[in-house]
Amino acid sequence: MIDRRTFSKLLTTGAATVSLPALGAGTAVAAGDGAAGKNATAGISESASQSRMANTSFDSLKQINAGVLNVGYAEVGPAHGPAVILLHGWPYDIHSYVDVAPLLAAEGYRVIVPYLRGHGTTRFLSDATFRNAEQAVVALDIIALMDALGIEKAVLAGFDWGSRTADIIAALWPHRCKALVSVTGYLITNRDAQKLPLPPKAEWAWWYQYYFATERGVLGLQENRHDFAQLIWKNVSPTWNFDGATFDRTAAAFNNPDYVSIVIHNYRWRLGLAAGDPQYASIEKKLAAGPTIEVPTITIDGKYDPFTPPGDGAAYRSKFTGNYAHRTFDVGHNVPQEAPRAFAQAVLDADRL
Questions:
Q1: Are 25 and 328 a contacting pair, CB within 8 Å?
Q2: What is the helix, strand, coil percentage profile of the chain, to 5?
Q3: Can you give the pTM of this predicted structure?
């Protein structure tokens, strides 16, 4: 199911689209249908290199107790604006959105960018808490954060672990999700399906999850977390010429004391090599059934991302039953950092589907 994509079409979005000035990323594709596709307008056309910006950090970080965590997060934009929550993946951090967040804030959004459990300044409140990274608990972390911040409903956008987390909230708690932007489409995990082999080329792209299944892999991640993540960045974003300062800024988030435990449990749990917490079994059962997502959604693929499935989003199209559009950008895996203007435009457009 997983392979590289090589196609380029005209970008289209819904008639209610609001365009940010000079937003752009690569040769962008939107293959929308339903309400979004019937009234399409021409969209983003800047090259990927032109779309990248120069922000280096967030002005400040905040901390708040939410569920079992004390969550570190960046917040930009008006305090009473409509909420957008931007979710990072692995091995990344909140700086994947350092350019996206100001663009959305300028449009009046209250933008929240949290460190996921095991990353950055997010900490467990109790040493006794199981360092669990099954998919359900990461989504529940975000629900708890929304509750703590007084956010009833938000536009959710993410990539990698962030896409999976946003997908889960949109599927199981749609009353908390106004709209969704999901890179690589539908990423909710079915652990039985994970037991089936992929074509060799696709398995090669996932080499590290098999490494993490071994104790050698645990030690390797512990001792080489900086170089390990840098290698992943290069492999999954082959056209992104990030510099050392950009990587090091994010790599600091991997010094979290729970980083290794969370990463290892996440990948082992997906493969059925580690147990989750029984209290979440009923939620995981619902997720394993592949629930559909009814909220307005824009899915995004990175053309050069090795995890992008073939078929212009066809592999997961049936999972989205509401207003929908699909786009592809000429970038790799870390779409929001490689194409921040186009990603920000997708968030605006999803909110207006």
A1: no
A2: 40, 15, 45
A3: 0.88
Q: What is the DSSP letter of 197?
A: P
Alpha-carbon Rg for the chain, nearest whole angstrom, is 19
Helix 215-223 to helix 259-270 angle (10° resolution) is 150
- Helices of type H across the chain: 34-38, 48-51, 100-106, 135-149, 161-172, 200-205, 207-211, 215-223, 225-236, 244-251, 259-270, 281-288, 335-338, 340-351
Q: Which residue has the tokens 């050698």?
A: 216
- pLDDT recorded at residue 52: 60
Half-sphere exposure of 162 (CA within 13 A, CB side): 31
**Left if phi > 0, otherwise alpha if psi is -120 to 50, otherwise beta: which for 162?**
alpha
Residue in 16, 33, 111, 53 with CA at minimum distance from that of residue 326 = 33
Contacts of 42 (CB under 8 A, 6+ apart): 10, 11, 12
Residue with tokens 């969370």: 262
Length of the chain: 353
Structure tokens at 282: 């009923």
Residue 341 burial class via C-beta count within 10 angstroms: exposed 0-12, middle 13-18, buried 19 and up: buried
Which residue, 60, 119, 56, is CA-closest to 251? 119
The DSSP code sequence of 53-90 is ------S--EEEEETTEEEEEEEES-TTSPEEEEE--T
* CA atoms of 125 and 139, how far apart (whole Å): 18
- As a whole number, the mean pLDDT across the chain is 88
CA distance 249 to 158: 19
pLDDT tens-place string over residues 244-257: 999 999 999 999 99
d(CA 199, CA 202) in angstroms, rounded, equals 5
Q: Residue 282's Cα: distance from chain center in Å?
A: 24
Strand partners, 301: 328
Residue with tokens 């977390």: 225
